[in-house]
Amino acid sequence: MFEQKTVFVIGAGASREVGMPLGEELKGKISEFLRWDRSYSGGFREMCERYVSQPNQYRDAALSITRGLPHAISIDNFLHTHAENEEIKTVGKMAIVKCILESESVSLLSQFKYSNTDTINPHDLPDFSKFWCEAFFKMANEFVSSDDVADIFSNVSMIVFNYDRCIEFYIWKALQRYFLISEIDSLNIVKSMNIVHVYGSVGDIVGNWGGDTRFGLDLDFHSLQKRSLEVKTFTEQKDSRKSQEIQSILKKSEVIVFLGFSFMEINLKILEIDTSSSARVYGTSYGISDQNQIFIKRKLCELLKLSSNPIVSLENEKCGNFLENYRSPILHG
Length: 333
Description:
By secondary structure, the protein is an alpha/beta fold. The protein folds into 2 domains: 6-19 and 116-332, 3-Layer(aba) Sandwich (Rossmann fold); 23-106, no CATH class. It is built from 16 helices and 6 strands. It has helices at residues 12-15, 23-33, 44-51, 56-68, 75-81, 86-105, 132-141, 166-179, 183-192, 221-228, 234-237, 242-252, 265-270, 290-303, 319-325, 327-332, and strands at residues 6-10, 156-160, 194-197, 255-259, 280-284, 312-315. The protein has a 6-stranded parallel β-sheet. Strand 4 (255-259), helix 13 (265-270) and strand 5 (280-284) form a beta-alpha-beta unit. Helix 7 packs parallel to helix 15 (319-325) and helix 8 packs across helix 9. The longest helix has 20 residues, at 86-105. The two termini are 13 Å apart. This is SIR2-like domain-containing protein. It comes from Pannonibacter phragmitetus.
């Protein structure tokens, strides 16, 4: 169990371990979905023609996104650039929700489908050994009795920069299987967790908690439109009360762990606090050059107001391996 106030800062690389798309792949999926081409079935054009009386009102926005997206760092960055264009924002967010839900439905987590009462062959169970949530859950359940399961995450907070619900879904299922508790009891524990989705999410994880956005669900036009309102751009996030919540979480932290985070300047700024901190900082820097790591460490010390002689350790590892290797420092200091 986590003994100290521990904050996990989660980026897109963390969900990649179960098959969720990173920036370039997500851009490709969005462009494919928004193709305004009669030879292409199942996309946004067909959805508009089925549900909207004047589908061409969305055509220009869809075409603008597909033409501009190859030149963008990410879909988020493109929507930030066009923050004043309501049509582009609406269509772009609908495409994000559609593609994230679709990716959830074919991710490794989609195989996590058996109930506690099913009789199954162990060989049919999905292998989550490379997913960081498995290592995280083992860290959390160490020496925790079933009587104390409600408090298992009492010292854990998460600041999540992803739209997907992979963390919540995995923990919901893992709690049921490890502690032999009901779906409802497990769900209540997940709901009690201090998880902040910085830019919103595509919804909640099950039908009776959020209505129409079960994990991996296929939504119609109007449901997509409704869920897209929960997805925020860089610009919109600045105006939300989440900034204060993030500040509060970080100020109380004793350990901060970055997983799959790209350390983009605009996202780092969100983590800036206004009081000094003695937190220890650990994280993954998979694929990040040594030169950029030096800059990132300096930036983290500056934004998190870390005290003299700070502990800031970044490793060029994937998230699951990193948590295995840093288990003791993170758990026990």
